Amino acid sequence: MLSPRGSNAAGHRGWYTVKCRICARKLYIGSDVVYYCPKCHIKYSTYFCEAHSRKLHRRCPYCGTELKLYL
Ligand SMILES: [Zn+2]
Ligand SMILES: [Zn+2]
């Protein structure tokens, strides 16, 4: 839901941020390339930066599911 006033802290862009499970780099969804495991990202926060998703051959190291691009 979009609120024109923004109920969050002023000046914040409101981007949803996640952390790469491997290097803990902050990833901005909608700005950075973010891969995630559709099966276990809610449980294990399996989000990955582009470099690490490539290293993992686009497969989740926890359950083996193919990683998806977060858009
Ligand atoms: Zn990473
Ligand atoms: Zn997984």
Write structural notes for this entry.
The structure is a single chain. A hairpin with a 6-residue loop joins strand 1 (17-19) and strand 2. Helices cover 14% and strands 17% of the residues. The chain has 71 residues and is α+β, with helices and mostly antiparallel strands. The protein is built from two helices and five strands, in the order βββαβαβ. It has a three-stranded antiparallel sheet. Residues 5-10 have low confidence and may be disordered. It has one domain. Bound molecules: zinc ion (ZN) (2 copies). The site of one zinc ion has 8 residues, from helix 2.
Spatial strand order of the main sheet: 4-3-5
What structural class should be given to the helix and strand makeup? Answer: alpha+beta
The number of helical elements comes to 2
Mean pLDDT: 87
Number of strands: 5
In the predicted model, the low-confidence regions spanning at least 5 consecutive residues are 5-10
Kindly give the count of domains. 1
Distinct small-molecule ligands in the complex = zinc ion
Written as H for each helix and E for each strand, in order along the chain, the element string is EEEHEHE
The helix content, as a percent range, equals: 10-25%
* Rg for CA atoms: 14 Å
How would you sum up the global shape?
globular
Name the beta content range.
15-25%
Q: Give the CA-CA distance, first to last residue.
A: 16 Å
Biggest sheet features:
3 strands, antiparallel
